[in-house]
What does this fold into?
Amino acid sequence: MGISNPRPLNSLMVDVPPSWRWARLDEICNGVFDCPHTTPKLVVNSDYLVVRTQDILTGIFRHESAGRVSADTYMDRIQRAEPVADDLLYSREGTYFGIAAEVPKNVKVCLGQRMMLIRPKRELINSRYLRYWLNSPLMSGYIYGYRDGSVAERLNLPVVRGLPVALPPLQTQHVIAGILGALDDKIELNRRMNATLESMARAVFQELVKDEGGEEKLIGDVVTIVGGSTPSTANLAFWDGGDIHWATPKDLAPLQSPFLLDTNSRITALGLQEISSGLLPVGTVLLSSRAPIGYLAIAQIPTAINQGFIAIKCTTEVPNYFVVNWLKANMEEIIGRANGTTFLEISKSNFRPMKIVIPPPERMKVFIEVVEPLYQKIVANLKESRTLANLRDSLLPKLMRGEVRVK
It folds into this structure.
């Protein structure tokens, strides 16, 4: 049985300026629409997109990586409402529920199975301001109490319609949205720049391997391949107060570029002793080996890992920039080597015999000289974006509470 009765608007216990007021979400919207509760069939070469939870993890709809559906499927799924620019896409279910993203201009998109559509009244609410409010830590804490579902976390439609919104005067909303939007716009610009830089590096790799003339070896013979594990969560000595990075595939899921700068979890020195592969050095290539197979990253921090990875310690002969591109190019074979009844997994024993052609040292040297500046710029952009995101996230609750006044 789902939870259907929203808590009172003042249950957030947040003081706002006298000129602000509280409103229910459905009071300031022309509609809050649920998705069809079916999984759409995906196609290729279509102009019609479908948004899923994973497409809005950062609060921005990544339409370039979204799934595509046929025109008939699109028309069937927009019967309740057709998303248009300034509408908000909202995740109602799954690991990353409670995230809002704006519908871009000139995009035809319908709702995936775990999504909702929010249509703000423009005369009452700035769409971008509403997105920031729904994504704020205040609302994350609020909806946490409405988690409902034994299989997946979810929010029911009445709860979403009754979500509280702190409503400043419209001009104040515009200013708040502008301040936070400027930071997000720079973060998005960095993301697009990184996509271009990564594409350039991939083109250099493809040119390198087009006519390698190198030596064919087994990947397990030229790099060191290790796995990880999870220290017992029942033993607090492995976790409490830990400052050692410990990665899971979930840390790689939201990455837009193949570099890991941080992890969600930390372990203690005692916890590290429970992991046979120990602390992996900066530069280690991480490949998620199950659920799903194929997340990739080069560690920019020393980190331990759980059992969901194949970790690759590279060498001068076979450097990590080459390996990460080789993995991408051979992902179909990697997945083909996987097996399992509950979920597919590529084991280390099945991965090690994969054949890899290594270019002559002089050609590998030129490859690294060309791509290393590209990847260094990607990392610099990622670090700048993380700083900007931290600034945005620190400003967000202060602006939303009215603690930082704007003119």
In short: Residues 170-210 form the longest helix (41 residues). The chain is about 35% helix and 20% strand.
